[in-house]
Amino acid sequence: xxxxxxxxxxxxxxxxxxxxxxxxxxxxDTTTLLLSSSSIVNNxxxxxxxxxxxxxxxxxxxxxxxxxxxxxVRILRTKSADGLAVSTWWLKLTSFTCTxxxxxxxxxxxxxxxxxxxxxxxxxxxxxxxxxxxxRIDGTTLLLACTYLILTAWxxxxxxxxxxxxxxxxxxxxxxxxxxxxxxxxxxxQLKQNFERRASGxxxxxxASLASVGCAVRLFTTIELTGGDPLLLLNYGVALLLxxxxxxxxxxxxxxxxxxxxxxLFLADVKSTEDTEMTAKL
Length: 282
Prior knowledge:
- By secondary structure, the chain is mainly alpha-helical.
- The chain contains ten helices and no strands.
- The chain has helices spanning 28-63, 65-78, 86-105, 114-133, 139-157, 169-197, 205-225, 230-257, 262-266, 273-281.
- The protein is globular.
């Protein structure tokens, strides 16, 4: 005689309330509810992360107004730009514009590259001021300016992948790689000079710190707002590594070789070494 167990579970095929598993313990509507709740939580988390990334993106864009504006103000105040190289600002303008074009052509939101857009405008203003005060407005400068405007307009407003009417996608990607190389080449000479002199140099640790934080934040916003675009991640990753390297050099050589305090190093932009050391002793 076969005794039926009180804990016997009917196969799901005979009971539509259960899932397709032959020994399912949860009714299908309960399982659906659990999966639905999990999906809602995941969607909420994803939405929250994206909102955070957008807010951080716009915050970086607003903060970037302070990056080159002081330089422009100083030029206007002193009516001199002798300590600035015109070629540096042409390279900055070119590299920033390449990144702008790459983001726009890929349809990324403005929050993903707001600071690059802002510093592109700032670099253009500084370049104009430097060129004017160094009396470098000549045929070569006008030719470069026209070439820059024509190529930028062609890359931005012409249809893609219809050469010669529009740039191929490969060219846009190459422009972003070029921007990464140009940005990296701007800090490599500073790293080399600090190492050779075993000195902290004149590079601001505050600038290096802020740039490092900005690049780290941009890695997060790039993942959230562009789906983790590899070329942009490479750009910000390389910039983060280089800025951290400069910061490490400034702190290491400043404290070990020059015997300066951290306070002295980080206040060097606004105070002389003597004033800072006197303040620290007090």
